[in-house]
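Technical note accompanying the year-one report. For the benefit of new consortium partners, we illustrate the data format agreed upon in the data management plan: each record pairs a sequence with a structure-token string. No post-processing was applied to the example shown here.
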Amino acid sequence: MPRAKQLTVQLANKPGTLAQVAQALGRAKVNMRALAVFEGRAKIICEDPAKGRDALQKEGLYASIEDCLTVDMLDQPGPLGDICSRLAEVGINIDYAYTGIAPSDKAVIVMVVSDLDRAAKILG
């Protein structure tokens, strides 16, 4: 923690594409912890990104693995603002972020940032 890998999957803009992704991962027994879908892409945090990528590619989908941060935080108002402020104070930009689930009373925020190494040290 907090460095992680995310799957990025190119999605056709037609009904059933996200179902194809979710079903392929399900058949491969790859559990998703976080999911965001926007601008023709799905961003997925899962237990085994390489296994997930392979399962998606067998379905004829383009999938890649990228570095990102995953930061567990309390599932209550306030922690996200604190995390973002810590990065902003040292000039690290958040390119995009999305949330997912974590065990017990936690949530997870996934971030792609301008300086992954520094951000991981600050939030690690």
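Partners are asked to follow this layout when depositing records. The chain is about 30% helix and 40% strand.
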